[in-house]
Design a protein that fits this description.
CATH superfamily of the largest domain: Bacterial extracellular solute-binding protein, family 7
Order of helices and strands: HEHEHEHEEEHEHEHEEHHHEHH
Number of helices: 12
CATH architecture of the largest domain: 3-Layer(aba) Sandwich
CATH topology of the largest domain: D-Maltodextrin-Binding Protein, domain 2
Shape: globular
Number of strands: 11
Distance between the termini: 63 Å
Strand order of the largest sheet: 7-6-8-5-9-11
Structural class: alpha/beta
Radius of gyration: 21 Å
Strand content: 15-25%
Length: 335
């Protein structure tokens, strides 16, 4: 009887395209399940990998902080084995992926597409060391450039003086400090709307995808539309977990990772930001400030110190900057 039940169970598993030996991989996302990155990038990636693995893998998405609600703790979830894979914002753990903060420099990254292509090229060339070497990297990406969303009207650098302003990474926080504002770290994207509504911050460096996902549009009145630095992002996998997989499972992950993932992410991210911009502006009373050449030059001059300090503060900083700028130019020309 037991043998009969085993055979029936085995036949059912084959009929439904699964095997009893499928390795479950837990993929953590701090976003809600309906948010763009989780729904339209991470979930399809998991489905593609599962299909390509021939039953070897069952990648399961755990959205909305199911495995850990704090976006700043996503990297630790992977290190501790609570999650096998996670979407990580390096700026929430300063110092861990420091060379990638080059993407936070103002007026450098024009789009998520170009930025993600360029930063993956940097990694592929071995120019990003340190913690990058401690994980299996599914993707190394950049967001669309962040602009300044604020409750107060900010048109010129002098308007920022004394205001509490937030940014998602250390280099952007340094830019805020250079402009005479008060840099506020430690506020992750899910806490933005509350921080704005309570007056803890007057504004934040962000983009319309995050504004829509985390309902910031309801608390802001102005959007200064200029590229004030992108947000570095990673999809990291526990290296030991990856090493222990079968060759077939590794091949399925590799097929949809690396440059393929970074390029797909960048293009999808840019498209969503453009669409989210239209939706947010239609639903909220927000004044978009489009700078002219003179205003742009004023901001570029005021923020030039950020680039100078970044280069001086990193070993081979000038070489890294030159390599990234060249990669950005190449990616921009190709897209």
């Amino acid at each position: 009887m037991k043998l009969r039940h085993f055979l029936i169970s085995s036949a059912a598993a084959i009929a439904f395209g699964t095997t009893a030996t499928a390795e479950i991989l837990r993929f953590s996302s701090f976003e809600p399940p309906v948010a763009h990155v989780t729904k339209n990038i991470l979930t399809p990636w998991a489905e593609n990998v599962n299909a390509a693995s021939g039953g070897e893998l069952d990648v399961q998405i755990f959205p909305g902080g199911t495995l850990g609600r704090n976006p700043a703790q996503q990297l630790k979830l992977v290190e501790d084995g609570v999650a096998d894979i996670a979407w990580v914002i390096p700026g929430y753990t300063p110092g861990r992926f420091d060379q990638g903060t080059i993407g936070e420099l103002p007026f450098l990254v024009p789009s998520a597409t170009a930025g993600s292509d360029a930063i993956w090229s940097m990694y592929e060339q071995g120019l990003l060391g340190g913690d990058y070497e401690n994980f299996k990297l599914i993707g190394v990406m950049m967001s669309s450039p962040n602009a300044l969303a604020s409750a107060a009207e900010i048109r010129n650098p002098a308007d920022m003086k004394g205001l509490n302003l937030r940014a998602p990474g250390p280099t952007m926080l340094g830019a805020i400090d250079a402009l005479g504002a008060v840099p506020v770290g430690g506020i992750t994207a899910p806490g933005l709307a509350e921080a704005m509504s309570r007056g803890l911050i007057s504004g934040t460096f962000t983009q319309f995808g995050a504004i829509e996902t985390f309902r910031v549009g309801e608390t802001m009145s102005y959007y200064l539309d200029m590229p004030l630095g992108a947000t570095p992002m990673l999809i990291v996998m526990n290296q030991t977990k990856y090493n222990g997989l079968s060759d077939e499972a590794k091949a399925a992950i590799d097929q949809y990772s690396g440059r393929v993932f970074s390029d797909t992410f960048g293009q999808s991210f840019d498209q969503n930001v453009a669409e989210a911009r239209e939706r947010v502006l239609a639903a909220n009373d927000i004044t978009v400030i489009e700078p002219d050449d003179a205003m742009t030059k004023e901001w570029e001059d005021a923020l030039a110190v950020s680039t100078t300090e970044w280069i001086a503060g990193h070993d081979n900083g000038q070489a890294l900057y030159d390599a990234f700028a060249a990669a950005i130019a190449k990616a921009s020309a190709a897209n």
